[in-house]
Amino acid sequence: MATVSKKPRNREILFDSVIALVFILVACVDLCDGATVVDVYRLIQYDISGVPFGSRLASINHHAASLHFAPSADLSRTVLLIPLRELNMSFVQEYIGGSKPLGGLIFLLPQIFSFKNKGGASSNHDDGSKEPLKNVLDKLEQILIHTNLPYPVYFAFEDDNIDTVLLDIKKNDASGQPATATTGGYKFVVSATEPKKVGSPPITNIQGWLPGLKTDGDSHQLPTIAIVASYDTFGAAPALSVGSDSNGSGIVALLEVARLFSLLYSNPKTRGQYNLLFGLTSGGPYNYNGTRKWLQSFDQRLRESIDYAICLDSIGSWENDLWIHVSKPPENAFIKQILEDFSSVAEDLGFQVNLKHKKINISNPRVAWEHEQFSRLRVTAATLSELSTAPELLQSTGGLVDGRQFVNEAAIVRSVKLIAESLAKHIYGHQGKNVQIFADNSNLAVNPSYIRSWLDVLSRTPRVAPFLSKDDPFITALKKELEDHTDEVNLQREVLDGMFTFYDSTTAQLNIYQVASVTFDLLLLLVLGSYLIVLFSFLVITTRGLDDLISLFRRPPSRKMKTA
């Protein structure tokens, strides 16, 4: 009976041993498991006339290092984790400008630049100095979007988890033991498919009308004033480009002006003898491609009815001065009238409006201001902006530094007052009269709450045109809002054409793994091997006896001895 009960007992021992071995293996896996998962945002990838710019790859599978790497280190298979707070432009010039090989770059941005941060995300940093960080990020962004980078580049945001990882990486680098397959450390992995071209990127223009007071005949024979703003953005990271000022402020101002004049035009006694045409256009960063297509859809009759167009661009971060940019000579009758009306209202409001004239070169495809698309079709137009000079291509288009915290609501309120009162002077013939139609505390007063609510929406809505579908909820919301204040609202759907080609894969998840060194692996292998030998020996002894175990290690007798 004792012999019979011994086998089940041995099986229990074997089973317990296997379970113990499994736990050991799981523990080993845990030692190499993911430390954290982080949302990351890829640097834009695009071509201009076939010339590549931005990040050309999306996948990452390399060890990580910090800016404390050894001067002689080979970084071709290393991902650098770089906090914006520690970035110096000499590194940017040497490695990015100098095209030195890198396995990848991940820039760590302060939470103040995250439109998702509502004050709840934790961070160990004090963000008291916004402006210096903003200036550094602005310079970095312009360098990145105008450089061809043959490796993955991502942006992430500071939090306690990734700060802890960065601290460990810095310690390893400072000790002279950068992360490698031999030494261990942290490994960064982004699993992403190869970026593909965005085929036929859609752009959508939205327009609405406030028809003027009908006399005899068709109201469309009345003169027209157009109020226009481009609504899309461009930045180093498409998924982060919300453009609160450029051109969120212009969109908000247009919607509020439409709301104010809808109140006036709802009463025949206060409806002006001008049609008001409101246009929200797409493709702004790309030479106002959408504006050109929108204007080309006008028939000659409508085009000739436009007295002038006012384009709104970046009017949310100014203090004492605004600029009116024009292409036609200042002597032009309508240009003089625009300047007189706006200057008179600005003086009453306590600030100044300046005129900047710049001729356009029709043979040059570069369109710096939206009003230039009107001027190319011989329609009088001007752009109202806080910017005194025309931005360069893909500059000041709502990138990483253009967030809600850098926009002044009071500046937008003053801009709306300026636009609304100036238009009213022209529409109702109040030139030279001290008349305030949109006075404070009246039922026609500018509504700061309305401005704030729409500014909040725009400041958390990335809207880079190639990645906005034609049925995007944002476009639907804009259309609905315009329908609440204007008539005959319609959408014009077009395809972005010209010299730009874009690629997808704008967001991903970064998996951070803490990997053990080869030394640890060898030690672990030795421990596991010893355990298995002891386990094997124990099982053989208990089931077959010590002699059988010893016989396993004896040399077998030669064939001659067997024959004898």
TrEMBL record:
The keyword Glycoprotein belongs to this UniProt entry's keyword annotation: yes
Main location: endoplasmic reticulum
Pfam families: Nicastrin (PF05450)
Transmembrane segments: 522-546
Domain of life, source organism: Eukaryota
Location of the protein in the cell: Endoplasmic reticulum membrane
Biological process according to GO: regulation of signal transduction
Entries under PROSITE patterns matching the protein: EF_HAND_1 (PS00018), PROKAR_LIPOPROTEIN (PS51257)
Keywords: Endoplasmic reticulum, Glycoprotein, Membrane, Signal, Transmembrane, Transmembrane helix
CDD domains membership: M28_nicalin_like
SUPFAM superfamilies named among the record's database cross-references: Zn-dependent exopeptidases
Membrane-protein topology: Single-pass membrane protein
GO CC, one annotated term: endoplasmic reticulum membrane
PANTHER family xrefs: NICALIN
Protein family: Belongs to the nicastrin family.
Name listed for the protein in its UniProt record: Nicalin
Upper lineage: Eukaryota, Viridiplantae, Streptophyta, Embryophyta, Tracheophyta
